[in-house]
Fold this protein.
Amino acid sequence: METVGQILRNKRENKGLLLREVAASAALDQAILSKIERSERKPSKEQLFKLAKILGLDREQLLIHYLSEKIAYEIAGEKVADEVLRVAESKVKYLKKTGNGKH
């Protein structure tokens, strides 16, 4: 399964863009973008959306990968990870139904 960093790197390379070109367009330090692509650093949502636009990636799909990766890394080592996901899914549905979600 591809990480957000791998998705970004693969798209950049497929478009024939250099790391420094994309970093400059996104107003990012080249070293930071390199770390993001190697999954050594997580981008902010703002950085993610800038990179999606520059690379022509679907924003929503990239956000799905970003958020799911964030959750997965947070709970992966827990014995109750599967149950956490089930309960979280129920809570998300409830929050959306009651209008108490963030968005």
